[in-house]
Amino acid sequence: MLVSSIKSFGRYCMFMTQVFRAPDKWKVFFKSLVFEIYKLGVDSIPLVLIISLFIGAVITIQMTINIVSPLIPSYSTGLATREILLLEFSSTMMCLILAGKVGSNIASEIGTMRVTEQIDAMDIMGINSANFIVLPKIIGFVTFVPVLCILSMFFGLVGGWFIAEFTTMISVEDYVYGIQTMFNEWYVWYGIIKTLFFAFIITSVAAYYGYFVKGGSLEVGKASTNAVVSSSILILLADVILTKLLLQ
Fold it and tell me: What is the pLDDT of residues 12-33, one digit of tens each?
């Protein structure tokens, strides 16, 4: 298993050297880049908004229920909700969810191109297929993912505000005051920086599994599953490393 992992990592590195080369036609590249930003990024906005709203509401409810000590001020609910969203959910948890949507989409799309011999046809024509297909996906998603991260942070807080506004669990004044209390701007940048690394992991790993598919449609499905699992594990590993580096 160790030898297989080392071989896979080596092939992944060689694959990335193929991907990150200057495009043959910049006009075609930018056209593909805009398309990938819309497909991978903009199309993910509804999912991000819905999940963030509900998670923000759930966090607020749970914080209100569990913070019952008279020694803990009521505004702590808003503060705790903000910290959870900024530090972990809107970066790590959201990218784990996007790994399922974006990663499986990329792996199945490229895998289908491989089994239908479209990639082989590009290689025969002298086109760098890895660069042509994969680079716009990586650059596009990495470029747009900070927008998804910021939207997730904002709508997560809005979800908590709905609980404060339409229930009696916490007052709106206490919730808003908690959001503003001891705010650290670096936590926002910390979340954005993490999502850049996670977006690269999602797109590159998914493209790797799709590009090297062998067989038919069954193998495409397996590659899609393996891409999601592997990228999720790597995201969690990167989260530990980045947290140690950025918050020490």
Answer: 999 999 999 988 889 999 999 9
Residue carrying the six token digits 């909700």: 81
- How far apart CA 65 and CA 163 sit, in angstroms, is 12
Instruction: Give the Cα separation of 134 and 140 in Å (integer).
Output: 10
- CA 64 to CA 77: how far, in whole Å? 6
How many other C-beta atoms are found inside a 10 Å radius of the C-beta of residue 236? 12
Closest to 121 (Cα-Cα) out of 129, 131, 109, 111: 129
- Cα dihedral sign, 100-210-19-205: positive
Residue 37 identity (one-letter amino acid): I
Taking each continuous run of H as one helix and of E as one strand, the counts in the chain are 11, 0
**Residue range 116-127, pLDDT digits in tens:** 889 999 989 988
Contact 106, 135 (CB under 8 A): no
CA distance 219 to 107: 11
Distance CA 206, CA 248 (A): 31
Read off the amino acid at residue 223: A
Structure pTM? 0.93
Handedness of CA 198, 231, 122, 13 (dihedral sign): positive
Residue bearing tokens 């994969």: 134
